[in-house]
Amino acid sequence: MYKETIEQASEYLRLILPLMTKYKVPPHPTNYAVWYEYATKKNKALTDEIDQKINRMENFTEEVNHKLYQHHLITLTPKQTNKIRDKLQSIFNELLNTLSNKDGEYLSYTTILEEAAENLVENLNPTVLRKTIIQILDETQHIKNSNNELKRQLELASKELIVLRTEFERVKNEATKDPLTNLFNRKAFDDALSLAIKAAQQTQSNLSLLMIDIDHFKKINDSFGHLIGDEVLKVVAAIIKKNTKTNDITARYGGEEFAVILPSTDINQAILFAETVRQRLNAQEIKRKSTMDNIGKISVSIGVTKFNANTDSIDSFIRRADNALYEAKQAGRNKVIEK
Q1: Cα(189)–Cα(250) distance, rounded to whole angstroms?
Q2: pLDDT at 148
Q3: Domain that holds residue 141
Q4: Residue 20: partners with Cβ closer than 8 Å, 6 or more residues away
Q5: How far is it, in rounded angstroms, from Cα 113 to Cα 132?
Q6: 0.85 cut: is pTM over it?
Q7: Element (H, E) at 183
Q8: Domain end marker among 176, 208, 235
Q9: What integer best gives the mean pLDDT of the chain?
């Protein structure tokens, strides 16, 4: 992944350490990886998010740096993928071997039944008849036992596949989901937006984008603490998600900012959606669970824009939504602005 020479890496080191010192970032390996990516400017999504945080004078706490690392640097590694693949291969091979063995047993059983039928037709001698019946009963019991073993093997394989599927979903979620809100993270948003734009271009359908920012969020954290701040983030995420349609994509874009991709949605529908979210959030009263003290109401500022297939790139599309959000903030917050 990193192909810089020693000289290049050393130069980045000289750039990174003063930055990490300036923003009080503990210089451990995961944090260094984040700021190395920032210094090289290779990871645009990461660079943009750090620049936004710097412009907003946000603190780069351990939690913030960890989320940057999770959102932008963690993916489903080849080692994880290979582990899942090898386990699946093992399960399927075991099942195939079991089924192959059973095919041979069933063929043998069929042959025995055919021979028994011939004996019964050609020879009704009581001794032969008794011997034939005992043979059929013995083979039938053997097949019954084999079926029980096959059933056990299938049940075992089914349980292993359920465990494997759960593990795969866990790893996938770690790579694509924001752990606090359970919405998509920034990396998953970038991937989803790229696909949504391609689909809109191919089908010549509408596509709209919302950027949503919680008003005065820093004040909430400073006044009531980060635990209350986290609860506010969860409430906002839940209400946004509740009002989306099946194909809409909701992500935590970074910090207190959210993004919503609205496929097959024209600008008027997008504005209506944004107003619905703004009003429903503004109607929420947040209270401290332990004391029931009133924290106050939530308000958000929202920027809305539509995709122009003839002129837009991914960057210009996002930038226009960001500019609309900035104008909503400048206009007094708790507003929806369309550009």
Answers
A1: 8
A2: 62
A3: 78-176
A4: 26, 27, 31, 32, 35
A5: 9
A6: no
A7: none
A8: 176
A9: 79
